[in-house]
């Protein structure tokens, strides 16, 4: 299932994402959050920000033929690729204001999300309201996202380069990296009981394209979308030069410090 009436919502292509950011859904990095989810035969699980469907497919396999798995993503190219990859049910929708058939509401055992909700800066509470609409009472919300101090170094370098050109970086910055306390309060205000919540630092190598490739994928069409190609290229050059001191080793290998906010919460009331 996929929406048939939509304008393009691709801020990057599925092929570029898979080439530069395959680490996002690698077994090494996703084993902890999938272990926290513990999908079982017959469960109904929705994947918030399914991307090209790699993790959705693992969940789909885990719940078996008697289960039901749905992927939701804002990027139409990613959803199209997910369906081609074998995800049976996927919708194009903004997670901050979910639009899917009403018969799916209050029907899921779990909402799962990996490496997505830090993009929901405009209305993070809207994401939780959507999860609440879809979950059964007693259902679980299992998520890993960027948290406080995620991408430290590169983010301040982007802010500095943009501000130096006379722009307001806080308004252009697309990311939402909350603290434990902030997000715990948000979950509780939406009717969730927080079972576990942690900040997990993770040094993340950037083997394919280094920091430049990462910036081209994650910042060019988001943080730097208002700039011309020439202006954006100059900003990226500046950021790469600034960050090389701390993020590139003597052999020329790049790595970025990720800090992941990982939580399990239970919906206690409808």
What keyword list fits this structure?
single chain; 270 residues; alpha/beta; seven-stranded mixed sheet; 10 helices; 7 strands; 38% helix; globular; disordered N terminus
Describe this structure in words.
By secondary structure, the chain is of the alpha/beta class. The chain is 38% helix and 22% strand. It contains ten helices and seven strands. It has a seven-stranded mixed sheet, sandwiched between helices. α4 links the parallel β2 and β3. α6 packs across α10 and α9 packs across α10. The N terminus is likely disordered.
Rounded Rg: 19 Å
What share of the residues does DSSP label as strand, in percent? Answer: 15-25%
Q: Give the proportion of residues in helices.
A: 25-40%
Major sheet: size, sense and barrel closure? 7 strands, mixed
Could you report the average pLDDT, rounded to the nearest whole number?
Answer: 91
Spatial separation of the terminal alpha carbons: 26 Å
By secondary-structure content and strand pairing, the structural class works out as alpha/beta
**Principal-axes shape call:** globular
Strand elements, count: 7
Give me a quick take on this structure.
With 270 residues, the chain is of the alpha/beta class. It has helices at residues 14-20, 27-37, 54-63, 76-85, 124-134, 154-164, 169-172, 180-189, 210-218, 229-247; strands at 44-48, 68-73, 90-92, 108-114, 135-146, 192-205, 255-267.
């Amino acid at each position: 299932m996929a929406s048939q009436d939509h304008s393009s919502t691709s801020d990057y292509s599925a092929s570029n994402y898979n080439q530069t950011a395959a680490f996002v859904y690698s077994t090494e990095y996703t084993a902890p959050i999938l272990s926290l989810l513990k999908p079982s035969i017959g469960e109904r699980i929705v994947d918030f920000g399914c991307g090209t469907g790699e993790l959705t497919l693992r969940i789909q396999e885990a719940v078996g033929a008697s289960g039901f798995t749905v992927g939701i993503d804002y990027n139409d190219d990613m959803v199209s690729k997910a369906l081609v990859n074998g995800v049976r049910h996927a919708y194009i929708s903004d997670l901050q204001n979910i639009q899917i058939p009403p018969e799916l509401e209050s029907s899921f055992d779990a909402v799962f999300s990996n490496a997505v909700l830090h993009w929901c800066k405009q209305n993070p509470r809207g994401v939780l309201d959507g999860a609440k609409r879809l979950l059964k009472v007693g259902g679980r919300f299992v998520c890993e996202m960027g948290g406080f101090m995620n991408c430290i170094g590169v983010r301040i370098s982007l802010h500095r380069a943009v501000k130096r050109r006379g722009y307001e970086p806080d308004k252009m910055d697309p990311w939402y990296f909350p603290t434990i306390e902030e997000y715990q309060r948000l979950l509780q205000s939406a009717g969730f009981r927080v079972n576990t919540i942690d900040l997990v630092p993770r040094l993340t190598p950037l083997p394919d394209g280094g920091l430049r490739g990462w910036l081209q994928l994650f910042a060019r069409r988001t943080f730097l979308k208002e700039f011309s190609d020439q202006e954006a290229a100059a900003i990226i050059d500046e950021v790469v030069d600034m960050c090389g001191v701390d993020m590139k080793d003597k052999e020329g290998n790049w790595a970025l410090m990720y800090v992941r906010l990982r939580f399990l919460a239970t919906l206690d009331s409808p």
